[in-house]
Amino acid sequence: MPKLKTNRGAAKRFKRTASGKFKRSQSHLRHILTKKSTKRKRHLRSSSLIHPSDHASVKQLLPYS
Questions:
Q1: What 3-state class would DSSP assign to 8?
Q2: In 3D, which of 28, 59, 62 has the Cα closest to residue 46?
Q3: Beta strand extents in the chain (DSSP E only)
Q4: DSSP H helical segments within the chain, as ranges?
Q5: Cα(41)–Cα(56) distance, rounded to whole angstroms?
Q6: Partners of residue 29 on adjacent β-strands
Q7: Suppose 61 and one of 7, 8, 25, 37 were both cysteines; which one would form an S-S bond, judging by CB atoms 3.0 to 4.6 Å apart?
């Protein structure tokens, strides 16, 4: 059986937590930042967990995580 390939785009976006869930970073923090409030940008810095319905998809993209 050949080895499975990891999706490199997903590997850069998701990290696995110790409990087996996947964490992700928030979007909308790359450009056009002048019109966004400081509070909005500060809250976007925090990471969050992916939705449970997407867990199977991400697990398939990252077989060795």
A1: helix
A2: 28
A3: 14-16, 22-24, 48-49
A4: 8-13, 38-44, 55-61
A5: 30
A6: none
A7: 7
Say how far apart CA 57 and CA 38 lie, in whole Å.
Answer: 33
Average pLDDT (8-25) is 96
Residue given tokens 């449970």 in the structure block:
52
Provide, rounded to the nearest whole percent, the portion of the chain with pLDDT above 90. 97
Q: How far is CA 17 from the centre of its chain?
A: 11
**Structure-token pair, residue 9:** 């785009």
Query: What gap in Å lies between CA 24 and CA 54, rounded to an integer?
Result: 12
Q: What is the pTM of this model?
A: 0.84
What CA–CA distance (Å, rounded) separates 11 from 53? 19
Q: Are 49 and 21 in contact (CB under 8 A)?
A: yes
**At residue 12, what is the residue type?**
K
